[in-house]
What does this fold into?
Amino acid sequence: MENVLFVASECVPFIKTGGLADVVGSLPQALKQNEQIETRVILPLYDEIADEWRSKMEYLTSFDVKLGWRNQEVSIFTLTHDQIIYYFIANDYYFTRKGIYGYYDDGERFVFFGQAVIEALAHLDFKPDILHAHDWQAGIAVALANILKPIDGMKTVFTIHNIKYQGLMPIDTFPDFFELEREHIGGMEWDGMLNCLKSALFHADKITTVSPTYAEEIKNPYYGEGLDPMLIEREQDLVGILNGIDTREYNPLTDPNLSVNYRSARAKKIENRIILQKKLGLPIEGNMPLYIIITRLVEQKGLHLVQTILEEFIQEDVQFIILGTGEPEFEHYFSDLANRYPNKVSALITFNEGLARQLYASADFFVMPSKFEPCGLAQLIALQYKTVPIVRETGGLKDTVIPYNELTGEGNGFSFANYNAHELLRVLRYSLAIYHYQTEWQQLLRNVNKSQFSWKDSAHDYSNLYEQLVPTPIYR
Ligand code: ADP
It folds into this structure.
């Protein structure tokens, strides 16, 4: 038996701000296909985690965690959900706050989290062979696992879900946080800063990221966010494994959020659309092509391109709905556009899972022109709801969306190469032309219906990676 402990800052169904939570929630389920692996997950116990879950948690133990001169009490709670055991690290000072990120001391909060995870290992009823940490918030756990060796022979895997967010702090906080020899500064410092993500890249036994294309891209300065030299240094241990989605969870046939469930029938999608149009006050026109965006409103998602051309594009006979929250610049832009074009545009400035599902179910096209995209789950969810993705060819978008080819009839979406607003406009217009050309549109929809992005193959790749690090007894 191989024990794997996931360390992460978010996880569906408990707490989610983005795709990371979907992956941390669904990969342990998928790993069950290998009976030799048992995966458990450890997370912070945020205030935002609903009572529905808290009431199911059992208290496990308490202990003190030292963070430099600070002494903080930690309690560990646990619950089992869908046959997976979860541990929650509770601490009033760091995690009893509104929301989960965005505090001036986020760096300190997740250094604390890393330290607490390492100390928790002595108290858990589970001895990991592999500590598998996700993104910068879990990076310090990897560094400390390698330096302090809390469990004999325990190996580490670190997965980069997004290299842009690194967890940076002034380097002079090092002695303030860690009781480590100064020789360890080198592994945790980058460009004069204490860097949580780089600490993990330096210390992990294996590094993965969430698509083959992104694994290549981040070795280049354009995508590497300053860490490309570090990734080149470690390229022998770096591999890209595509994310999947939980196809039980994202299933239009059973999704309770939808007004009308369907397998692939367009007529049923249109019924959903009409109900949505009524709800949002858009003109009720079932056959009007509907383009949607569902995203965090940040520059990464290509929203500057959208801003440049959207007003021109909506002069066509189309409707457009955006669902998202984030930077005020984008929130204002979309709200203003919706005010000026109430018959064409709806701007839903909120985070709402149920509404997201209704949008995926109602739309014809899902627009995702990201500047960079490690994997992207939204385009996979769109495909699952038989909505055609329109993407920029980067990272996981390039690995999952094949542009429609009129000559061969292949492809499950539309794409463009350069980060250029007029390339986006051209491909939006092209998608509309194909929509109105019945033979081509039907062929494209057949391809969309066949697209499958379950976890099966990727879970197999992770199993193999674990196996390389810690061969299970049957192979010994
Ligand atoms: P990222 O992790 O960079 O945010 P992904 O495409 O990997 O991007 O994952 C985004 C996830 O968050 C998808 O499940 C998407 O449906 C969801 N999501 C994004 N914005 C919203 C929102 N405003 N309301 C509901 N769900 C959202």
Summary: The radius of gyration is 23 Å. Residues 2-244+456-469 form a domain with the Rossmann fold fold (CATH 3.40.50.2000). Residues 380 and 400 are 8 Å apart (CA to CA).
